Amino acid sequence: MWRFPGSFSDCPSLPCRPLQAFGQAYTNQRKVAEDGETIEETLLQESASKEAYYMGRLLELQTEVTLSRSVASNVQAENERLNTLLQDLREARVTGSSGVRSGVRHHGHDPIVGAKSGAKLGNK
């Protein structure tokens, strides 16, 4: 009568060979499953790390956009202020108000129209 051996390698007879094959297949399957779990854990860690990086980067870019909008708004306000000042200076020149123009003329060059003083104003 056949009895279960202490280990698969101890069994020299024919009935042990299927058990050895089964044992080897089971060991291989268990190793593959363990490797798969290790790979899965590694991928999950990498994904979490990438998610954290991209969330941080997203916050940085949102801050940049907010700052850029603020700068653009300030530039637009300054542009409007300068356009108003330019229009006031042009109107003062047309009306001949010498009080406004006194600080504008330098050495015969008019920075408003970019020509020698006395030149006609161009329309906008």
Structure report:
The protein has two helices and two strands. It is rod-shaped and about 120 Å long. Helix content is 68%, strand content 3%. Strands 1-2 form a two-stranded antiparallel ribbon. The chain starts with 15 loop residues before the first helix and ends in an 8-residue tail after the last strand. The chain has helices spanning 16-95, 98-101, and strands spanning 109-110, 115-116. The chain has a domain at 14-95. By secondary structure, the protein is mostly helical. Residues 96-124 are annotated as: Disordered. It holds the Pfam family BicD. Keywords: Coiled coil. Belongs to the BicD family.
Spell out the key features of this protein:
rod-shaped; single chain; 2 helices; coiled coil; BICD; two-stranded antiparallel ribbon; mainly alpha
Secondary structure blueprint with pairings:
Blueprint: H1 16-95, H2 98-101, E1 109-110, E2 115-116
Antiparallel strand pairs: 1-2
Quick summary:
The chain is 68% helix and 3% strand. It has 124 residues and is mainly alpha-helical.
The largest beta-sheet arranges its strands as: 1-2
Count every beta strand, where a strand is a DSSP E run of 2 or more residues: 2
Q: Counting H and I runs of at least 4 residues, what is the number of helices?
A: 2
Cα distance, first to last residue? 114 Å
Q: What order do the helices and strands follow? A: HHEE
Q: What proportion strand?
A: under 5%
Region (Disordered): 96-124
Family: Belongs to the BicD family.
InterPro entries: BICD
Pfam family, one: BicD
